[in-house]
Design a protein that fits this description.
Blueprint: H1 33-36, H2 47-52, H3 54-62, E1 75-77, E2 80-82, E3 90-95, E4 110-113, E5 126-132, E6 138-145, E7 148-151, H4 155-163, E8 169-170, H5 188-203, H6 217-229, E9 240-246, H7 249-252, H8 255-264, E10 270-273, H9 282-290, E11 294-297, H10 311-319, H11 322-327, E12 332-333, H12 342-348, E13 354-355, E14 368-369, E15 378-380, E16 383-385, E17 390-391, H13 405-419, E18 423-427, H14 437-453, H15 461-466
Parallel strand pairs: 9-10, 9-18, 10-11, 12-13, 13-16, 17-18
Antiparallel strand pairs: 1-2, 3-4, 3-5, 5-6, 6-7, 8-14, 15-16
Helix pairs in contact: 3-5, 8-14, 10-12, 13-14
Length: about 475
């Protein structure tokens, strides 16, 4: 069978762990109008930044403009904001009504990347999906033939092309990763403002794929494929899976605060720690382990240079983490700032059981835009990949008020539940992100709503990875 089978059943979802929190008061709904009213803070460098000349230099190193990006009007279909211009190598899907997933609204725009190879003419067979190309052509892309289900591109090749992010618009290596010192010598506040500008600049691109918050084309195609090849398989179910990246010593101060919110709801999470970036507070790590939390690896240092190392240098760096891996029974890894590469994943499989460095839809990594376009774990380069589907603090980079973050993510949670994807959350306990009272409160409200959406189901990433099987 050609369709990849990431988990225990053919629909890609493992057996469910029912860990329901204690009964609590009904959730207070947040009006959708609040999203439109979110605070728009002007992003300007402080006077101290100007005085030392850090702002233009740092912006140049990151490859972004030091000026505030201009706004742009984008077309809106369904619940997604999409770029008005077509994107090379991406086709728009039209799926037959009788087999189209129920979660696809009539006005929803479905897009999917296609391999740079010649497509197969499917003729006039029973067409299940059409592709609309950049030049306006409309041709069958998925059809039922006498030989079975056929696609315009070999399904296994097409799936591999997407899951390996071969379509992604990776940019040149950021200049700051070539410098002899780490980018973290810049003040944390300046780094945060630069990240905000990069995010806003990325959102303003004329031609972009994928777009936040989700692109449903690949999930829709997988739904159609499964519906035909295994119509009796049960429907997938979503789980909440919580992860955190501790990027600084300051972040350790808020670990127990965030973990306490999770404990109050009967939840546990994984905490990814940088081995040598700061003094690791062993007492806090012991406290996490004693309370059933999981410890993960977040590189040896947080300099964003990992994927640019040779394989030998990669192994030397990860070898320096072996003591940490053994001491804290580490099973998982996430690369700093979402930097990832096939070489990194091939090396990682010799050190850990799973990786969380890929996003389902990535507009955050400084290296460029991409994503694996699925919310289902799978095996990638010999290692289990658990796509991060909800980078909780991303709205802050768009000047969203902390109180509105749960409302920002509500459409994405609803979509993940509808497609049977995993709600894999990532936060940072550092003060600029989730390490403050406003965001801790917001995180608690979000967890309550997300738990209710997935009927109390949750899992640690280690357990999620253990149920994944290779594609066959």
């Amino acid at each position: 069978m050609n369709e990849f089978q990431p988990c225990a059943d053919n629909l890609g979802m493992p057996a469910i762990q029912d860990c329901k929190p204690e009964a609590r008061e009904p959730l207070t709904s947040v009006s959708a109008d609040l999203i439109a009213a979110k605070r728009q803070r002007e992003l300007r460098p402080t006077q101290s930044d100007r005085s030392v000349g850090l702002w233009p230099l740092a912006a140049r190193c990151l490859g972004i403009s030091a000026r505030t990006p201009t706004s742009r009007t984008v077309s809106v279909r369904g619940s997604q904001s999409v770029a008005s211009a077509s994107v090379p190598g991406v086709v728009e899907l039209e799926i037959a009504d009788d087999i189209c997933p129920a979660w696809v609204a009539p006005e929803t725009r479905l897009r999917v990347p296609v391999p740079p190879t010649r497509s197969v003419d499917l003729g006039d067979h029973d067409v299940l999906a059409w592709g609309v190309w950049n030049d306006g052509r409309r041709s069958p892309i998925l059809a039922q033939t006498g030989a079975g289900l056929e696609t315009a591109f070999p399904w296994e090749t097409w799936t591999e092309y997407i899951l390996t992010e071969s379509y992604a618009s990776w940019r040149r290596r950021p200049l700051y990763t070539r410098l002899p010192v780490s980018y973290r010598v810049l003040p944390s506040g300046l780094r945060y403002r630069l990240a905000m500008r990069m995010c806003r600049s990325r959102r303003a691109e004329e031609q972009s794929f994928p777009t936040p918050l989700f692109e449903g084309g690949f999930e829709a195609l997988r739904h159609v494929w499964r519906s035909v090849t295994d119509p009796l398989a049960g429907a997938p179910a979503s789980r909440l899976c919580l992860t955190h990246d501790v990027d600084s010593e300051e972040g350790f101060r808020f670990v127990k605060d965030l973990a306490g919110v999770e404990l109050s709801l009967g939840l546990r999470s994984s905490w990814n720690i940088v081995v040598a970036e700061y003094p690791v507070d062993a007492s806090i790590v012991h406290w996490l382990m004693d309370h059933g939390f999981e410890i993960g690896l977040h590189d040896y240092v947080h300099d964003n240079k990992l994927i640019y190392l040779s394989e030998c240098a990669l192994r030397r760096r990860l070898d320096r983490c072996l003591g940490f891996i053994e001491r804290w029974n580490v099973a998982g890894f996430r690369s700093p700032s979402w930097f990832r590469s096939p070489r990194l994943l091939r090396v990682l499989r010799d050190y850990v059981q799973y990786d969380c460095s890929c996003l389902d839809f990535d507009w955050l990594c400084p290296a460029g835009r991409g994503g694996v376009l699925t919310a289902t774990p799978f095996v990638h380069h010999g290692i289990v990949e658990i796509p991060t589907t909800l980078p909780f603090e991303a709205p802050l980079l768009e000047s969203c008020d902390p109180a509105l973050v749960p409302a920002y993510w509500r459409p994405k949670v609803d979509w993940l539940v509808a497609v049977g994807g995993q709600i894999v959350v990532n936060t940072h306990p550092d003060p600029e992100y989730s390490g403050n009272l406003d965001m801790i409160r917001s995180y608690g409200r979000f967890l309550e709503e997300a738990l209710e959406s997935c009927n109390g189901r949750w899992s640690l990433p280690r357990a999620l990875a253990a149920e994944v099987r290779p594609r066959v």
